[in-house]
Write a structure and sequence with these properties.
The structure holds two protein chains of two kinds. By secondary structure, chain A is mainly α. Chain A contains six helices and no strands. The longest helix of chain A has 30 residues. Chain B is built from five helices and no strands. The longest helix of chain B has about 45 residues. Helices cover about 85% and strands about 0% of the residues of chain B. Classes of the chains: A mainly alpha, B mainly alpha. The interface between A and B is large, with 60 and 63 residues.
Chain lengths: ~220, ~180
């Protein structure tokens, strides 16, 4: 499963944006300086012939190269609906009647779900404050909810995708018993590329046990 | 969204480069022959007008590609849906397309009038339309930078969250750093 580093992609996008801005600024300067009050008799200085290939042509080439690199980094090109539909383990859902059309972004078509790991093999790390820190990506796995089965996965997948106000398949319960089907989620792979649950290492499990025992 | 914007941008950029090469080749041939062939001269001028138009279309697709990439990254990183920005982007790109077509039309009109021997032909109108295009194009590049900065900050913050998830002591350090 190929890993996607969002930070690397974000950095490349930022560089492409900066290059695009510099290119646009050069074109704007050239237009404002020589083209707004255009005259057939005005000579354009030679330094523009030197700067034009550098600030426009070469920057365009670098931008296209970086975009291609971003496309290669994201498996099979840029994310589209088609890409996610072909991936295994994707929860498909139909757009609700809230006015949001299907396929706005590739992620609209579903979110990858992972099979529920056996409780004996996975000991959850639980930190309630994480939900505030992480925001709407606040997955917290609770082992006692593992018995809820696949409903949680579908609940989580649809909870992530459905806009507010839509019908949830799992009826809401009291806070103590509510099926908070959160689980620690790490985007170690492209959406739809299989399991996104990362089994903790023995060192991490030890830290979890120490933390839950009140030590550390 | 099933179109591959990256490929379209690449096709248009390649077309621009190919047309520019054809123009340069024709210019060299005309220079060698002393500009004696009138049809070739006209063809060279027309191709020299079409090449920047293709380049403008490639720039428009590149802008579209950038905005779509940024918005999809924000979506994947868990940010709220931003359809409004997307539709505004479409409107601005439509305006840019219209200005690019208008520039091409004015250029072609100038070439035709020049060929007719009209001495009072000025390229000023085409130049001003191109200026309007560059102004709108520059204004569009500013929100793209803001989007990419927000993507970068969210990705960086998420990376730090991952480190926090792994080890509890780091979470204490993160809380203190806030």
């Amino acid at each position: 499963m190929a890993k996607i580093s969002y930070l690397k992609i974000a950095r490349r996008l930022f560089v492409v944006s900066i290059l695009n801005f510099v290119r646009c600024t050069w074109e704007l300067y050239y237009s404002a300086r020589y083209l707004i009050k255009y005259s057939n008799f005005e000579l354009i200085p030679q330094y523009t012939g030197v700067l034009e290939p550098i600030l426009y042509t070469w920057f365009t080439v670098i931008m296209v190269g970086l975009l291609v690199a971003i496309g290669i980094k994201k498996n099979h090109g840029l994310w589209t609906e088609q890409c996610l539909q072909q991936a295994p383990g994707v929860v498909q859902y139909q757009p609700t009647a809230t006015g949001r059309g299907a396929g706005v972004y590739g992620g609209e078509q579903g979110y990858p779900t992972a099979p529920v790991p056996p409780v004996a093999q996975y000991q959850a790390y639980q930190q309630p404050q994480q939900s505030e820190l992480v925001g709407n990506y606040a997955p917290i796995w609770r082992p006692e909810l593992a018995a809820m089965g696949q409903n949680q996965q579908q609940y989580w997948g649809q909870q992530q995708q459905q806009p507010m106000g839509t019908i949830n398949p799992v009826s809401p319960q009291s806070p103590e018993k509510s099926p908070q089907s959160y689980y620690t989620q790490e985007m170690d792979g492209a959406p739809g590329r299989g399991s996104i649950l990362r089994r903790p290492t023995p060192h991490e499990m030890h830290n979890t046990q120490v933390y839950e025992a009140g030590g550390g | 969204m099933t179109l591959n914007w990256r490929l379209l941008t690449r096709y248009f950029s390649s077309s621009f480069v190919a047309l520019e090469l054809v123009v340069q080749g024709l210019n060299i041939y005309l220079f060698e022959t002393g500009y004696s062939s009138e049809p070739l001269l006209t063809t060279d001028t027309h191709i020299a007008n079409i090449a920047p138009f293709i380049d403008q279309i490639a720039d428009i697709f590149m802008l579209l590609c950038l905005v779509e990439l940024n918005l999809s990254s924000l979506r994947a990183l868990g940010s709220f849906n931003q359809q409004g920005i997307r539709y505004c982007n479409f409107v601005i790109l439509a305006v840019l397309t219209i200005l690019a077509i208008a520039t091409l039309g004015e250029n072609e009109s100038w070439v035709v009038k020049s060929d007719d021997g009209t001495n009072e032909v000025s390229w000023a109108t085409a130049a001003r339309i191109y200026c309007a295009y560059t102004i709108v194009w520059w204004i569009t590049s500013l929100p793209i930078i803001a989007l990419s900065i927000s993507v970068l900050s969210i990705a960086y913050r998420r990376q730090r969250m991952r480190w926090v998830c792994i080890s509890p002591p780091l979470s204490i350090l993160y809380v203190y750093s806030l």
